Structure formats: structure tokens, C-alpha cells
């Protein structure tokens, strides 16, 4: 997939790390080494937390609320329930909320993208399934990954364009303020000079009577 033109066009290591993070990373991957990534806004962090819930559902079909809350860096259970509710509404997961035992019971979750080592594992002999099935599964996963790659790149580029726009606006506003201040300063000095000249040329009537 690294031969795709859209992937080759990414020259920034941080953007590539961001792409990998949203393809198959987790919130823990983000907080483990945030310096490798661009700054994430609240919407991006929310998305990453939801993707992390999906990844956790692969390993355990009963997820403890408290363990999830800690892994996602959330302040309270209410924030977690909002994330889960959105995932259910989007049909990213099918689950039951057991409020008595504070666990999330997963019935189904959508697939996420696969890493290279997972691809090798998939096409190996560990699974007792036919080669045709494995190749079909691999093909579907790669197509889904490519689609999400293009979506993430589009979102990143849009964020960069917005940042450049805000920067240009800020610079223009700064230049305008500096120009206005310079104009006011020039006018003040001119008025001050006129007053000084008038004071110098002014002759008191009392001095003439002498």
C-alpha cells in the first residue's frame, strides 16, 4: 500500500504517524509518544477514543467501564457512555450496556485496518480456513484501509488549510495594527511639532510694552 500515490505524497513524518494512528492505533499509542504526532483537537481525540473502544472489543467481549475509562483518559463514566452511545448509533458496534455491573457487552463490532504483521499472520497457516477465504478477507481489509487512508489524508489536509488560513488572517491583522499604530504615532508627533513651533513663535504682548 506504500506504493499508492496518495501515500507517497506524504512527506511529513508526523502526518504519516497520524495516519497510522487512526488506521490501527489506540489512545494509549497517542499518549505514549505524543511528540511523534501533530497536536490533536477535541474532535480527533474523541474519534481516537472511539476507535480504541472498537480495538478493545476484539480482545474482550465484556469490557469493564472503569478499565475503559482509565485506558481512554476520561474523567468520569458519563463521558464513556456518550462515546459508546455514539458508536451504537453509528452502528460501529452492537452492544448492551449492563449498568448494574458497569460492563459493556459487545455483540458485534466493525473491523479496523490491519498492520503488516497481522497481514502475514492472516495469510499464514495458523487459521484452518481455505486460502480463497483468507485472500478474500485480506482484499476486503486492504480496500477498507485504502478508503480510510484517503479519508484521513483529506481531513488532515483540510486542517492544514484551515491553519494556514487562520495564520494568514492573524498576520494581516498584525500588520494592520502596526500600520495603525505607526499612523497614530506620526500624527501625534506632527501635532506636537506644531504646538512647539507655535510656542516658540508666540510673542507676549507684555514683552512688547517693555
Automatic annotation (TrEMBL):
GO CC list: COP9 signalosome
Highest taxon above the source species: Eukaryota
SMART domains according to UniProt: PINT
Keywords attached to this entry: Signalosome
PCI domain mapped to chain residues: 1-111
Family note: Belongs to the CSN7/EIF3M family. CSN7 subfamily.
Protein name, entry field: COP9 signalosome complex subunit 7a
Organism: Cichlidogyrus casuarinus
Gene name tied to this protein: COPS7A
